[in-house]
Structure prediction request, 347 residues.
Amino acid sequence: MISTITMKWNGSTLELIDQRKLPHVEEYVKCQTSECVAKAIKDMIVRGAPAIGASAAFGYVLGAMENEKDLSVAKMEEVKERLANTRPTAVNLFWALKRMHSKFLEIHSQSKSAKEIVSLLNDEAEKIAREDIEVNKRMGNYGQELFPQDVTVITHCNAGALATVDYGTAVGVIHAALDHGKTVHAFVDETRPYLQGARLTAWELLKLGVDTTLICDNMAGWVMKTRKVDAIIVGADRIAANGDTANKIGTYSLASLAKKHGVKVYVAAPLSTIDVSIKNGSEIPIEERSHEEVTHVQGVKIAPDGVKVYNPAFDVTDADMIDAIITEKGVLRYPYVKSIKKLFEQK
Ligand code: MRU
Prediction:
């Protein structure tokens, strides 16, 4: 059993809060098939790297249930592919599916009954979800140490409870700072085109009681120039072995402005977001999304017919622009090739 604002799992149904409708409507979508979970990920009912990973793990369990009569390796490979072919950038999706599929291969080879296999897969998916919450809390504790007693940050996209099973990564650091008695002022980038900042992060931070100010993305530079901003704090969708970090489109612009204004750039991400199989950011696949996200705002057309559109959903911030990567095992510093290698050797 898992029950958080983002997702609820009772062993046979995954309920996902429909993040497309927030903050005005709090409605859950019920999934009882792997196909439904794959669609929920693709359509961004659930979004945010760790939340996508955990949802896919539960989708994999539903896939095993669907195939209980013939629980073969081939069938489970199909399930894995169905869930993997949804969004390409966040590595947590592939990390969680790899973990679930390895577990399946291990127990399948022990000639257990289909019922036992499903039950063990359920345990593994719940473990992934519970670990995510634990890891976020640990990350928050490490990360808050980087903040002064009274801190002003700029956040981008949504790396809060909604982007994870619970608690959040970058917002988790803010949450932990509050728990340590610190005062946090947050400027929230609206995060065009999908508006995760305006719709989701502003909603979460207000609920936490943070002094929250919404800005359009193109105001961040001016805010850094004219106000006291201590740090940019963001999450990540995939971090390469050298520390190059893919996150929501606009993170690179924000980090560039931060460098110009002497503002710290902090990334909070669990080890499951670090992809040591790739050397640098040029190998990270960047998702491109529909043109309507740019030509329309919340369904209302704003651009003329016939205009060309480019809509990359993520960008890559170079490792040397990042002052610290906050993980559940501690705070990493540049050069990340060394600190990430050391971390994975300890694992
Ligand atoms: O397209 P989204 O909304 O899934 O993008 C999410 C982000 O870019 C987040 O910043 C990232 O996944 C980190 S979430 C803890």
